[in-house]
Design brief:
Helix content is 60%, strand content 5%. By secondary structure, the chain is mostly helical. The strands form three sheets. It has a two-stranded antiparallel ribbon with strand order 1-2. Strands 3-4 form a two-stranded parallel ribbon. The longest helix is centred in the first third of the chain and has 38 residues, at 121-158. It starts with 16 loop residues before the first helix and ends in a 6-residue tail after the last helix.
């Protein structure tokens, strides 16, 4: 027998619990059951308050007491459900029995048969997942994404004028500004944020095969589709009129695909920041008491960005799997979605953990202007682009007869180190107009940044 007490298998429930525990309120088994109780209670009250089937309309105080019990779902209900489910071997049926017991406790036994009325388990489950997923997204995940975006926005604005040597294909390229490069990330994330915020959460409530058959059998004169729509939308979801036994999960697939896309943009940010740190463009601010390496005291490892990178990969892998799996269900229903949906919290948890690390990491870095300036000053050959472009404009304007300016600059700069003096001498000897020549002589790698600084303003457009 192991001396260890029971241990969590997932690091999200162990080492990293503090960073992701907000999701447990919604995307845990208890969170799902709380939502199931809420849906069951709201459905029976929906029917009773309309006097359906001659039901006695509950008083406002009785309805309030039942709703209050559902809202206060806690450890006592969790324990009772576990006991009931040990007998029923069916999670949703256990919830139904729990609600029935509460009706008896509140003196509402005459309403007991309206509990789970005409419902299949998936009627309850799909609405419960819609409620919990929407809440987890808006109360936990989105605020953290917005926090990262705002931290990046502030960095982009603060560093909009800081020149930086760009690197395309890993090679020195036309200079930019650090702020503009961060603004690119903000713009990408903001676009995904808008798309994620616009995602709908569909819900169905139409019986065993989506036909309202049991409903019509009980009351053929009721307008069941209209009642279903009213109930679903009253829960804050979007009504889906055409389904099998299950809601088709297309809305969830769309959401997971968009979150996965946002994850990959954040992954790109994490790897770029890591690279800037390794190049010395960014420095890490020492944290009191922290150890970088177990053997090399000088080191400050970029662990926040490495942790974020790994967790974003895990999150996207799970989200991609969920999105591809959930949209398929054999004929009118199979149970594969039951297991996969229980991993939604894990998928979002790894993303939340990554966002937490990115937020912390961004608060522990600083731009190193000296390293940026040194790299710019060591790469004067990047001005070759400007020189050959100006020559081409002068040829077009009839102020130069130079043939093939690109080849001329290629010969001067490709694979070579050109100094400021080399380029000045070359420019002085060019057959171009004086204005063009003076513009070129005034260029340095540090001021050859075009409209980079001004482009940051598009973040507010």
């Amino acid at each position: 027998m192991s001396p260890l007490p029971p241990q969590p298998i997932s690091p999200l429930d162990g080492r990293y619990r503090a960073a992701v525990e907000g999701l447990g309120e919604f995307l845990s088994e208890a969170g799902l059951n709380k939502a199931r109780v809420h849906v069951e209670v709201e459905w029976l009250l929906f029917l009773a308050e309309r006097g359906m089937f001659g039901a006695e309309v509950p008083s406002a105080e009785q309805a309030r007491a039942l709703r209050s019990w559902a809202a206060e779902f806690g450890q006592a209900e969790i324990d009772e459900l576990a006991t009931v489910e040990a007998t029923t071997r069916h999670d949703v049926k256990a919830v139904e029995y729990l609600v029935r017991r509460q009706l008896a406790d509140l003196g509402l036994t005459p309403l007991a048969e309206l509990t789970h009325f005409a419902c299949t388990s998936e009627d309850i489950n799909n609405l419960s997942y819609g409620i919990t997923l929407r809440a987890a997204l808006h109360e936990v995940w989105l605020p953290r994404l917005r926090g990262v975006i705002e931290a990046l926005r502030a960095l982009a604005i603060a560093q909009r004028d800081q020149p930086m040597l760009a690197h395309t294909h890993g090679q020195p390229a036309t200079p930019t500004t650090f702020g503009k490069e961060i603004a690119v990330v903000v713009h990408r994330l903001q676009r995904q944020l808008t798309r994620i915020e616009a995602v709908e959460f569909p819900g169905k409530f139409s019986g065993a095969t989506g036909t309202f058959s049991a409903h019509v059998s009980a009351d053929p004169d009721a307008d069941w589709p209209t009642l279903s729509r009213e109930f679903v939308t009253g829960l804050g979801l979007t009504w889906n009129p055409l389904t099998t036994q299950i809601e088709s999960h297309d809305g969830q697939a769309e959401l997971f695909g968009r979150i996965s896309h946002a994850n990959r943009i954040l992954h790109n940010l994490a790897t770029d920041v890591w690279t800037y740190i390794s190049m010395g463009y960014l420095t890490q601010i020492p944290q009191a008491g922290a150890t970088g390496s177990s053997t090399m005291p000088h080191k400050i490892n970029p662990i926040r960005f490495e942790n974020a990178e790994a967790n974003l990969e895990l999150s996207s892998a799970l989200l991609d799997s969920l999105a591809s799996t959930l949209v398929t269900s054999r004929l009118q229903r199979d149970l594969t979605d039951s297991t996969t949906q229980r991993n939604i919290g894990v998928a979002l948890g790894h993303s939340v953990l990554a966002l937490d690390n990115l937020t912390r990491g961004l608060g522990e870095i600083a731009v190193n202007p000296t390293a940026l300036a040194d790299d710019l000053d060591g790469n004067w050959e990047v001005l070759g682009e400007a020189i050959q472009t100006v020559i081409r404009a002068e040829v077009t304007a009839g102020r130069s007869s130079i043939a093939d300016p690109y080849a001329l600059l290629k010969e001067l700069t490709r694979g070579k180190r050109a100094t400021q003096a080399d380029l000045a001498a070359f420019i002085e000897g060019l057959d171009i107009g004086d204005d063009a020549k003076q513009r070129l002589l005034a260029l340095t790698p540090a001021n050859y940044t075009g409209l980079a600084s001004a482009l940051v303003d598009y973040l507010d457009s």
